């Protein structure tokens, strides 16, 4: 493809994406086709001769788009949002066009330096503790996901627990990781990958009302493990749990970690983005105790997947835990000690120029634009929660400090399961569920970029009407 051919095809692809976004509201949020439909529509193998991009775009329309769950749809309220935006796509396009591999400073100096500066910008934007800034011993890096951030934090924590000898000594089955019963499954996965096995993870009970980790239970577990000769290595606290956006109490958990020399990682994958708004920083109280922290701009900050922002308070410790320097990567800049080589801050060697999409997003929206996006979502969710509260058939199952509302029909699970299936079957909205204290609970997460008051109103009307259809009020005559 020559640059001129690329220019023409590229305009066609950008047009396709713009048309896709413009027509999202007319599409069903989820695919209406049975499993295997997309696979059956594809040709048996690649074409013998090359085809024009128009042929691929036609198949995108015919085969791929109908087989998608449309995460950017204004009626998408499932899981947590996975925002993207025009500036994010354009930044990613530039990254793809440059094709830079930023494993070392020397393999793309701007790739590294832009990332370092942007992570400092973000740290300022979220008002993170000074210890995470690259101007001191700390610093930030972009990981592909919060799961990877948790894995990296686990590896550094094990390195620390082993007195800096983990690199040589490897896994010691006595190490223990602590997280609440509401923590994300990536904590257990990271422990497994790190070789600790499921028995290496202690799930700490939560306060039944707030769903937040109980400091007393954490202390008891750490003390019992120490008494048994085990080695508490890592506590993963969550700001904004996946089920209900509960916030673990860092001001109480932090001192326990400090007292016992346990590494504290804070996972704010979803809720961290809210801290761009000063009034939504309550979850970060006590963050000064944390050794590492992460949030996903790819969830709620208009930056397309994949982009997790991860900070550590001691970059030297992180590099010590992960670095391996083969001869073929040696270079003068690394040896000077004056540069960051981000390959030492992550699991893979290679890395994309992800900072570009973040840079495009930050510059396009500015601080105020990002705050508007977050505040808009929080206000829409609060309005929805008011509707639920005002309808005596329903109950709110948890607080809604951010833009997730957890609710259910009062009574048994069955009608809730049927309600969820029925509203999703309409294709007009999409919700997902969780279990809170064992009870089937519906989750409505606001955050898709095109979602407005009208879409949230429509969601409520659909939910309310469907609940009536499933369980009509008793007839007056009977
Ligand atoms: C609290 C929390 N941590 C981690 C994750 C995993 O995120 P990622 O897909 O970036 O690994 C999620 C996903 O929803 C989450 O809610």
From TrEMBL:
It comes from the Bacteria. It comes from Verrucosispora sioxanthis. This is Aspartate aminotransferase family protein. Belongs to the group II decarboxylase family. GO terms for biological process: amino acid metabolic process; carboxylic acid metabolic process. Keywords: Aminotransferase, Decarboxylase, Lyase, Pyridoxal phosphate, Transferase. The modification N6-(pyridoxal phosphate)lysine is found at residue 299. GO terms for cellular component: cytoplasm. GO terms for molecular function: aromatic-L-amino-acid decarboxylase activity; pyridoxal phosphate binding; transaminase activity. Pfam families: Pyridoxal_deC (PF00282). Its cofactor is pyridoxal 5'-phosphate. InterPro entries: Aromatic_deC, PyrdxlP-dep_de-COase, PyrdxlP-dep_Trfase, PyrdxlP-dep_Trfase_major, PyrdxlP-dep_Trfase_small.
